[in-house]
Specification:
This protein is an alpha/beta fold and 884 residues long. 46% of the residues lie in helices and 17% in strands. It is built from 30 helices and 29 strands. Strands 7, 8, 9, 10, 11, 12 and 13 form a 7-stranded mixed β-sheet that branches. Helix 16 (535-542) packs across helix 17 (544-553) and helix 20 packs antiparallel against helix 21 (631-658). The longest helix has 33 residues, at 851-883. The radius of gyration is 37 Å and the shape is globular. The protein starts with 11 loop residues before the first helix and ends with a helix.
Length: 884
């Protein structure tokens, strides 16, 4: 028998082990089945399970479990990401703490040994944690972005792009993180508006004419690397000065005033300094005009030789000191507080420095075209649709992607340099000799590839590409990619253009975009705020099912959700309600004879037909919701059915039959209870897999485990509309009586009599099932009348479909108790009236208090007088009743 109390700790871990050992998650290629594939967004091996993972992965598991039950060959591929920067930082810190060495002192080979050791110890931690959520992934197919197969795919992709001229090595401006000591792609730079200053600096004409020009800059420390000043060709203020040379403040260098489309006449002074080595827009201006590119900041974020006496200073320390010098020399005209957009490293938050560097780039425009086309022609669908605009905007404005990173942990770039002739060789296999000069002195590029280069291949590299494996042919393209809106640019875009190039197919049909899990105040969860909620702690306290159900019923596609403890408590209460109801059914099944469906269906009563019809409709509605990715609506419909219709109505209605003398009727009731419970468990299973599997294991006449059971299908032949109408009218009547009882303050245990005014069909339906009304509303006797002419006058009434229900006041009220209550209420109101009258008669209060406060007191007085009048009137009525 099912345990007396619901305790998820007693079975969640056991059930997961049973599923895994029984091969329930393993997916076989089956030509008779349709495939349904999801690849798990690979969490970083440095990661700890957080609420974002819990949401993201539960969404995927709901879809996978549902499709598996529908008969699909449902494959969910799990895996982890090597996370170049994050992992390297962890390993470097570990080496420094334990060995007192830098990675350079250790050497590349030894460092990578340590990195792989770290991965072995910590890399599996997060996959063990996600198991606690109940994820039904095919763990036999678990992948790692640096495993042998993924490494082969990355090399193949790189070399193919290079041979087609879509990867090139160039000296261009890149995003540089001075802390992580590596380049970053545009998508890895997080932009934030910060309070800063505009410094208005005067540049004097080099010819001694006395002419000058003032420019506004937020980065005065880069003035040392200026190679021009630019104004709009339409800016008439500067027409006479165009072509003149101006001296860079505090230096002997001269720069020309040029015209370009970039300067905005309405911003600052309309004149901008051009520093091609330290600003992306300036770099483009420099290319258009053939300007010299000078750098005054090095890769450590310190000032270079070009900064003269400021050499070696941190860029921000230099700013403070240089601004002081500009002020002293009279070059600083003014400063202005401004909100300035600042780009920071997505890993460490350090402000990035645009730097000129030799790096590897992907030529994006040709690749982006196909990724744009696949969205516009409907082969790739965003859910919700609004995210397609963001996706397209990003692709339509994309710049070449810098893919080289100055790290050691990651996919090493398959490029080799001949030490004798300088030839660059890019091949899938390491060459032994230079094809140009024959030298064997070859050296591989030191850099590794951007993590997102390998993650971009994830939907097809995990299925065997570049080989035409059976898995690749059967399971690719995948069906749904579930992801947060925060990595659309990082990841989704890269997967689509990589897949379109490599496989000529969109990697998935749907992109289901979800929001973030925020705290109760709507703030993003972060370590700095200390507001993070550990899902493992929630699982320990409430169970995985409660966490999953709370997340699924609290989210809508694309929108953030707030984590509130009361919501997970509510989900736990729901699980408890289901547990107790199931235990009640199983206990009653022990004393009943299990009968066939054919026999049961001969003896169905109205309530049986109603609940069978309702579960049939709910199955149809839930399936439709899931098809549209409306997981929250689907979960809520299952919740409402189980809590309200099955537990609060059907079980209460059939209790009389379960305890009655008619054995055949009892058997029918038990049959229906179990039949509907089975379908309920099936519908709920994708959302709450553990509790449903545990209850299922105790049900009579079930086959195998619930995880492998068939999904309930809508049966169009079920037509019990007449019984449904009758029971729903009964429910309406019971609710109406309960509302009257509550309004009158009558206890639920108080026996009442009822008069039902109805005729025709409504009268027939209510009279045929009056026993249910009596039982559920605690009614002793029901009198049916066709009109109210002979009904008592002192009644409370409620209207339902086609009928009016009257309850005599004499039944509802205990007049002695009511008299006592009203007397107390009268005394209380008299005191309040006197108190406020005293306050308002106090001239000091009326004169000194704000008008708003005085008016509020007057309104209170009017309200209390009105209440007192009603209480006095009611007292007279009650006294009249008692005097009879």
């Amino acid at each position: 028998m099912l345990a007396k109390t619901y305790d998820p700790k007693q079975f969640e871990e056991r059930i997961y082990e049973t599923w895994e050992k029984s091969g329930c998650f393993k997916t076989e290629i089956d030509p008779a089945k349709k495939p349904f594939t999801i690849v798990m967004p690979p969490p970083n091996i440095t990661g700890q399970l957080h609420m974002g993972h819990a949401l993201d992965q539960t969404l995927q598991d709901v879809l996978i479990r549902w499709k598996r039950m529908q008969g699909y060959a449902a494959l969910w591929v799990p895996g982890t990401d090597h996370a170049s920067i994050a992992t390297e930082v962890k390993v470097v810190d570990k080496i420094r703490e334990e060995e007192g060495k830098t990675k350079e002192e250790l050497g590349r080979e030894e460092f990578l040994k340590r990195a792989w050791e770290w991965k072995k110890v910590y890399g599996g931690r997060i996959t063990e944690q996600v198991r606690k959520l109940g994820n039904s992934c095919d763990w036999d197919r678990e992948r790692f972005t640096m495993d042998e197969g993924c490494n082969k795919a990355v090399t193949e992709f790189f070399v193919d792009l290079y041979k087609e001229g879509l990867i090139y090595r160039g000296n261009r401006l890149i995003n540089w993180c001075p802390s992580c000591k590596t380049t970053l792609s545009d998508a890895e730079v997080e932009h934030e508006d910060k309070q800063g200053k505009y410094y208005y600096v005067r540049y004097d004409a080099a010819d001694g004419s006395g002419d000058s020009i003032v420019v506004a800059t937020s980065r005065p420390e880069t003035i040392f690397a200026d190679t021009a000043i630019a104004v709009s060709p339409e800016d008439e203020r500067y027409t006479a000065l165009v072509g003149k040379e101006f001296t860079v403040p505090t230096t002997d260098r001269k720069v020309k005033l040029i015209t370009d489309s970039y300067p905005d006449m309405t911003k600052g002074t309309g004149a901008v300094k051009i520093t091609p080595a330290h600003d992306f827009n300036d770099f483009e201006v420099g290319e258009r005009h053939g300007l010299e590119v000078l750098s005054c900041i090095d890769f450590d974020g310190k000032m270079s030789d070009l900064a003269g006496k400021y050499k070696g200073l941190d860029r921000y320390d230099c700013r403070k000191q240089f601004v002081k010098e500009l002020e002293e020399t009279g070059h600083l005209v003014k400063t202005e507080d401004m909100t300035i957009p600042v780009g920071g490293c997505y890993r460490c938050g350090t402000v990035i420095e645009p730097m000129l560097s030799d790096q590897w780039f992907v030529k994006m425009e040709p690749l982006a075209k196909k990724a744009i086309e696949v969205a516009k022609n409907g082969d790739l669908v965003h859910v919700p649709e609004r995210f397609e605009k963001i996706y397209l905007h990003w692709l339509e404005n994309i710049k070449d992607w810098c893919i080289s990173r100055q790290l050691w942990w990651g996919h090493r770039i398959p490029a080799y340099y001949c030490q004798d002739c300088g030839e660059i060789i890019v091949e899938k296999e390491a060459p032994h000799t230079c094809p140009k000069c024959g030298s064997s002195r070859l050296k591989q590029d030191e850099d590794v590839l951007d993590t997102w280069f390998s993650s971009g291949l994830w939907p097809f590299s995990t299925l065997g590409w570049p080989e035409e494996t059976e898995d690749f042919k059967y399971f690719y393209p995948t069906d749904v990619l579930v992801t947060g809106y925060d990595i659309i640019f990082f990841w989704v875009v890269r997967m689509v253009f990589s897949a379109m190039y490599s496989t000529e197919k969109s990697p998935f049909k749907y992109v289901y975009v979800h929001g973030l899990v925020r705290d109760a105040q709507g703030r993003k969860m972060s370590k700095s705020l200390g507001n993070g909620i550990d899902p493992l702690e929630m699982i320990d306290e409430y169970g995985a099912d409660a966490l999953r159900f709370m997340l699924m019923t609290g989210i809508t596609p694309g929108n953030d959700m707030r984590f509130q403890t009361e919501k997970i408590e509510s989900a736990r209460n729901f699980a408890n309600k289901l547990w107790n109801a199931s235990r009640f059914v199983l206990m009653n099944a022990e004393d009943a004879q299990i009968i066939s469906e054919e026999e049961a269906f001969k003896n169905l009563k109205d309530e049986d037909k109603w609940i069978i019809s309702r579960i049939n409709d709910v199955a149809k509605e839930v399936t439709a919701n899931l098809e549209k990715f409306e997981l929250s609506f689907a979960g809520q419909k299952i919740y409402d059915f189980i809590w309200n219709e099955y537990c609060d109505w059907y079980i209460e209605i059939v209790k009389g039959r379960l305890y009655g003398e008619d054995g055949a009727d009892r058997n029918t009731a038990v049959f229906v209870l179990i039949k509907v419970l089975k379908d309920m468990l099936k519908l709920l299973h994708p959302f709450m897999p553990f509790i449903t599997e545990e209850i299922w294991s105790y049900l009579p006449e079930k086959e195998g485990m619930l995880i492998n059971a068939g999904w309930p299908e809508y049966d169009g032949n079920i037509d019990y509309s007449e019984s449904v109408e009758k029971i729903e009218l009964v429910m309406e009547a019971v609710r109406s009586i309960r509302n009257i009882r509550a309004e009158a303050g009558a206890l639920p245990s108080r026996k009442l009599n009822a008069i039902i005014v109805a005729e025709g069909k409504a009268a027939d339906m209510l009279s045929s099932d009056e026993r249910y009304i009596k039982n559920l509303a605690n009614i002793t006797n029901i009198t049916f009348v066709s009109d109210k002419s002979n009904a008592p006058q002192d009644v409370m009434s409620g209207v339902v479909s086609g009928a009016e229900i009257l309850i005599p006041l004499d039944d509802l009220l205990d007049y002695e108790a009511e008299l006592e209550r009203l007397e107390k209420e009268k005394e209380k109101l008299i005191k309040e009236v006197k108190r406020i009258e005293g306050k308002l008669s106090n001239e000091g209060f009326v004169k000194k208090a704000p008008e708003k406060v005085v008016n509020e007191e007057k309104a209170k007085l009017a309200n209390y007088n009105d209440m007192l009048e009603k209480v006095m009137s009611r007292l007279e009525q009650v006294k009249g009743k008692l005097s009879k």
